[in-house]
Design goal:
- The protein is mainly alpha-helical.
- It has one domain.
- It is elongated, with a radius of gyration of 13 Å.
- The termini are far apart.
Length: about 70
């Protein structure tokens, strides 16, 4: 059950615009489940880019890149 929750948290992290390096887990099995969820969400997203969350560092970087492009 915990693996499912960690997997879903990884998916949610991608949707919220977090970077893959922001995994909150240190235990290998939990980290692996989170990363699988994150990767799964990237494959489900046709543009392969997360939704922009301006409250995360990654969201700020994405917004800055948009300004300069």
């Amino acid at each position: 059950m915990q693996k499912v929750v960690d997997f879903e948290l990884g998916q949610l992290a991608f949707i919220k615009g977090k970077h893959h390096s922001e995994c909150p887990f240190k235990l290998p099995h939990r980290k692996a489940a989170w990363q699988r969820g994150y990767r799964d969400a990237t494959y489900e997203n046709p543009t392969n880019t997360p939704s922009t969350n301006t409250e995360s560092t990654h969201g700020h970087i994405l917004n800055l890149r948009k300004l300069f492009n």
